[in-house]
Structure formats: structure tokens, C-alpha cells
Amino acid sequence: MVQQLVRLRTGRATLGGVASLLLLSGAARAQEAPPELVAGAVAQVIESPAPAPPTPRHTGIKATLKAVPRDFMHLPSRENLLLTGIGTAAALVVHPFDDDINTHFEGTGSSDAFFAPGKYIG
């Protein structure tokens, strides 16, 4: 009985989807440009793509190791300080409730199903 009801609902959903697709395809066709506008259109000029930029002179491991200290000099900024402050405040606010939240989600079927691939992935 339940399987027949599911088939009936699935059939209705499929029929409704097909009907919607047919109605929308007619509306999309109505938005095409009239032939007189297409005939009077100017031909499009297609240019060749620009050549690739030259490779920088200094690439490789040595150049990367030289650039790393400069990257660390750019870390202290107002934006990074703001994001660190927001993250720290959020962690301090939620920390007292951490055990309760963990107990709530422990052993529920949905969380076990969500994290099940992690057993195999890593």
C-alpha cells in the first residue's frame, strides 16, 4: 500500500516536473530576438587571444624561501587582528556550553551518519 502511494506521488511529481519544463521552454523561446534584428546586426569581430605573459625571472624554491619572510611581515594587520578577536570572543562565549552540545549530538543517528565517511577518508 505504501509503495503504491509512493509511486503515485513520484508519478505526480514527475508529471508536474515535465509540465513545468515544457511551460518554461516555451517562455524561453519567446525571448529570442526577432529575425529583422538579427539580420541587421553588425558582424562580430573575433580577435586572437593575447600572448601569455613572460615567466618571471626568479621562480623556484630559492625565490619562494626568500619571499616567505616578507609574507610573514604582512600578517600583522588590522583585518587579521579583527578576525582573530572575533574568533577568540566566539570561542570564549561557546566554551562553557561545549560539553552540553557534545552530549546532545553524541549518539544521534544523523550526526553518526554525517561523520561516517570520516572513518574511511581520514
Short description:
With 122 residues, the protein is mainly alpha-helical.
Characterize the structure shown.
The protein has 122 residues and is mostly helical. The chain is 67% helix and 0% strand. It has seven helices and no strands. The radius of gyration is 30 Å and the shape is flat. The two termini are 43 Å apart.
List the helices and strands and how they pair.
Layout lengths: L1 H28 L5 H5 L21 H13 L4 H17 L3 H8 L3 H7 L2 H4 L1
Backbone shape:
flat
What's the count of strands?
0
- CA radius of gyration is 30 Å
**How would you spell out the order of helices and strands?**
HHHHHHH
* Proportion of residues in helical segments: 55-70%
Largest sheet: none
Q: Helix count, per DSSP?
A: 7
Distance between the termini: 43 Å
Structural class call reads mainly alpha
